[in-house]
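Thread title: Can someone regenerate the structure for this chain?

I was given the following input by a collaborator and told the matching C-alpha cells would be attached. They weren't. Posting the sequence so someone can regenerate them.
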Amino acid sequence: MVALAGRETAIGDAIAIAVKRLRQQQEVESATGEQVIILLTDGVSNAGSLSPVRAAALAAAASIRIHTIAFGGDGGDGIFGIFRAPANAGIDEAGLRSIAEQTGGSYFRARDTAELAEIYAQLDRIEPAAQAGAMERPRSEHYPFPLAAAVLLMLVAVLWPRRGYRS
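Best answer:
Regenerated them for you:
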C-alpha cells in the first residue's frame, strides 16, 4: 500500500492508520504471517493527534514491526558557502530510533537515493515477502481538457469564414 499523507508530518497518525489497515487486512484474509510497516520520513512529527511513541506502542501491542528510514541530506552550503544548514536539520533521528526499537524494527539513515536503494535492498533481505506486492503509482492525467480546447480552437480557425482580406 502506498499513501501520501500531505504537507505536514503526522508520524503518529500515519503509524496508527497503517496499524488499523493491517489489522483489517489480517481479519479479512485470516492471515497469520508477520506484519511490517516501513516508515520513510524527511521530517519531524509536527502534526496529528497521536504521538509517534504512543502509535509505536499500539504497533508493538499488535505485534507489528516498524522499520524507520530518515531521508535527507546533511545540510547545504547555503548562500555563497557562508551559511550552512545544520546536519540532520528537521529530522528526529532519536524519535525514529525509538519507534524502531520499541517495535523490534531497525532504524536506517539515507542521505541520497543511492543509499535509499541500498536500504530497501537490505529490507528485502531482512523481511522477505512470500509474494511480490502489486506496484502502485499515483496517477492523474490532466491532458484531456487542454487537448479538447486545442482541438476546438483548431476547428474554429479552420472553419471560420475569412472576410475582408484583400491583397
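The longest strand covers residues 64-71.
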